[in-house]
């Protein structure tokens, strides 16, 4: 059926972050007399010695360490009444030498109409702008990887409400592999690595969309791992994510810490060439997870069986919102093969050193092996040289999937525990915990098996293909989202397409806000099946698209590259 097309021009308005007509200064800019909390820098020399040992042994790839605080709006910071009628609280956190700071709040309860964000001392916002709809169920919060070591926490409260309640519990000093463009911290993986959008990744363009880098918060600090969204035989879009247990050892990672994990999708170079700047793709993330099952074989220092961890991203109570976000990202639920068959040929897709997504290729046959004393728990793989390099694995690659290629449908057969491959040792092998061992061999109860969750109806099926929408959701609905629409592509370079086929007979109001909350586009009377909006003149960054029609609302975040 031919679709009606409407092309909208741009209209720029100011909203939320207000500028004074007289001074052209940001009303929410850092106060000149804002109080500062100084946090001593950690002993990086000692940390580097620890990291060198841990990285060599294939342990958790740490990039940040904690400082504990107890800073609130009552005992810290500076308040100011604004000409807008709002109240502003600011607190300067200075942790000298950090590439980026992450902030963990033990209490984060925003009043209706309030906004919270992090900015640098020049007033540039370096985080998402959070409102009451971003509150977590336990009223905690994690704002991760804000670039810089001297940052301003900013809370804006309306004047006619009870004040928000915020307690800063931990500041994470991130010292490596952050992607901070200001200090050229990009492309930190080894030089032989191959970008996923090189020719080597041509047959894995669906599968790569299920891979995420995971910012793990655990007992000793924070760091990177990799893993994959996985399909299950109920075809219900459960946001299950498969990674390695050593990324979050049971003895160190509490349920509370797992609430703070971040799963970053689509963090990749658009071509085979390494980028010169990071861009904003890493802002496509899901916050938090719940432990579902694991191999129960890792005390943080030693792997004894197959080293798997299955989590559900987001929260159990807000599953639909997580699914909607994943589909908005264009995520892919990867398939798997639980047969214990030594295949020939395939790839690993991963985020070495937390870097942009890479692909490693093997052309030989896998060999059944083990990490510890238990036989047959792992696949041993040796990587092959290809057109654009010889992809290996590194710290941060842990938990990433090993795929076999099966005539157009690639399936996960293993998850990375570690190994000895380097760009200087490309023929040294790596070891992947077998999906076939994860299935039922790590123990007799469901909490140490994959099968009860990936085959919930006990069908006995051992092979499943991947899907971009396994449950065939059309217009996934949540409390603030009940209009059927599609906004694509995401990320976007120049033109946003808005498919309103399901509500084409209605007039639709379209608004777009930037990350600071400023209204950058508005159309109050759009109609038609397919609408194109040119955003080529927009700055790179994260934007929120809101569609409203006859009491319905659709909201989606997009990334402009």
Give structural notes.
7% of the residues lie in helices and 37% in strands. With 561 residues, it is mostly beta strands. It folds into three domains: 5-15 and 482-560, Immunoglobulin-like, CATH 2.60.40.3080; 36-182, Jelly Rolls (Sandwich), CATH 2.60.120; 186-464, Thrombin, subunit H, CATH 2.40.10.10. The strands form five sheets. Strands 3, 6, 8, 10, 11, 12, 13, 14, 15, 16 and 17 form an eleven-stranded antiparallel sheet that branches. Strands 18, 19, 20, 21, 22, 23, 24, 25 and 26 form a nine-stranded mixed sheet that branches. Strands 2, 4, 5, 7 and 9 form a five-stranded mixed sheet that branches.
CATH topology type of the largest domain: Thrombin, subunit H
Q: Supply the CATH architecture of the largest domain.
A: Beta Barrel
- Report on the biggest sheet: 11 strands, antiparallel
Secondary structure tally, helices: 5
Outline, from the CA principal axes?
globular
Number of strands: 33
Rounded to the nearest angstrom, the distance between the terminal CA atoms is 31 Å
Low-confidence stretches: 1-25, 474-483
The CATH class of the largest domain, by name, is Mainly Beta
